[in-house]
Specification:
This protein is an alpha/beta fold. The chain folds into 2 domains: 133 residues, Rossmann fold; 93 residues, LytTr DNA-binding domain (OB fold (Dihydrolipoamide Acetyltransferase, E2P)), CATH 2.40.50. Helix content is 34%, strand content 32%. It is built from 8 helices and 17 strands. The longest helix has 14 residues. The chain is elongated, with a radius of gyration of 21 Å. The mean pLDDT is 86.
Amino acid sequence: MIKAILIDDIEQARNTLKRDLQEYAPEIEVIGEASGVVEGAKLLRKVQPNIVFLDIQMQDGSGFDLLDMLPEIPFKIIFITASDAHAIKAFRYAAIDYLLKPVDPDELMQALARFKEQQTDEQAKYKLLNDSLKNHNKPSERLALHSQDKIHIVSIVDIVRCESSVNYTIFYFADNKEMVVTKTLKEFEDLLSEQKFFRVHHSHLVNARYIREFVKSEGGHLILQNGTMVPVSTRKRAEVIKMLDEL
């Protein structure tokens, strides 16, 4: 059995989540509940769950306050949150699972499937999340990437380009390493659009920092600093020229 704790200041929310777990994930055993930060911290000192469903905003503080009280985070976290665009973007940078209230059973099952598939370093991911939230006026400097069996935290400036591969994305780095990531290129386009990354082709997302030149002939393509040629689609040609003029 997978041991779980529910921490939410609304009893009805805990009861609903508990019913959903009983119905859709009988392998999850709820071994404890708490209604706030202080109560949750005390509970986590007594028991050792595999997973914690953690509300962000509670009457006596936030879920982040609770985590800051712990010496380590040896369990998986799935945050429960109301809609907050900045917080959600921070979650995406850190590759941390979150569920929007009211919790959708299908999204709950997807989050649990990811929990079962991957071994993760929650401490590192939480630090990345915390940094993103505290420095919300600055773009995040790091990004958490899911490969098949791990989550890698990388520096965004080291990413040269991303290439679509059906439902996966291949990342190419400045040190010539490559990584296959289990998300689509569209998701990274949305996440990195404010970080000087441009979708120059339906299969290619490029970090403008690494563009050396744009060759207008033969349909048009970019040449990157490492010599890689990246095609530019006809419909993106004008946008690419405008983007390069504004760099």
